[in-house]
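Allow me, if you will, to draw on your knowledge of protein folds for a short while. I have a record of one protein: its chain in single-letter code and its fold written as discrete structure tokens. I remain grateful for any guidance, and I place the record below:
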Amino acid sequence: RKVPQVIGPCMQRVSEDSVRSRPVAGAGRERVMTPRDAFDVRDAEASRSAHVMRTSVEDGHSMHASRHIRQLVYGGLDGVISSFALVAATAGAGLPSAVLLMIGFANLVADAISMGIGSYLAAKAERDHILRERAREQWEYDNYPEGEIAEMVSLYRAKGFSAEDANRVIGIYTSQPAYKEAFIDHMMVEELGYVVPRGDSAGRLWLSGLATGLSFAGFGSLPLWMVAALESFGNIEFAVQAGCGAAVTMVALFGLGVCKARITREHNFMWWNGLLMMANGALAAVAAFLVGAAVNGVIGGRVSCTIGPAL
């Protein structure tokens, strides 16, 4: 089968099979190569084919899913580093593992709730701000269209357009009432640098916050669960427990770094991103250990705590 001719000198008729037969880097099986995939491998022919097949629409459908994946990765990074830093600080201060587990899990739950709600509120505040600015731009255009048109022409002139071409471009946008919404969205981008959110319902924003909170709690619990598991044997020193927690943390950080590279499409730097995340976690842990040891020294030696009915 042939894809219908697309108007334009650079577009050619491309067969569906020629597009679908191109493997995508990192994919477990062959699938349709999107324009982003083609850019990653700098394949101009694949990019042209993907645009003819209009696979960019498929890219758009995955936007919300990728946003939640980003929240999972970044929430996980925050969680695992925070918990591992607490393990290191406890080791530096000479506190027993029981104190770490009590404080660690309580802090993890509180931080996860705070992170999730904070992520939702931040996303909602940004969305509401952009929509308020769009309402203002629409009101200004409804009441003084000449001024808004003149602003847009000036912006295009600043980009290097001639007066004639700038007026022609803006004239097309303002030539039909049906183009009004698109023109206001365009003003938002050119004047304020805002892309108007589409489909960011309260449900999607809550999902984003939920993904952040759950990821923070899930990944952040890994070093704590390792310490708890070893503590259950009853005869393993805390230094060994902390070391095993460190190993689990490093594996998690490396995996999250690789996931981060996939999200940002840095396919050639996946290992580097993983190692960078490991270095980030190690630096945070060393700093926490030193602070814990320093505070313990300031207050007069190693701290001993007994967990029992007295507390």
Q: What stands out?
A: Confidence is low (pLDDT under 50) at residues 1-21, 25-29, 55-61, 305-311. The longest helix spans residues 97-143. The chain is about 75% helix and 0% strand.
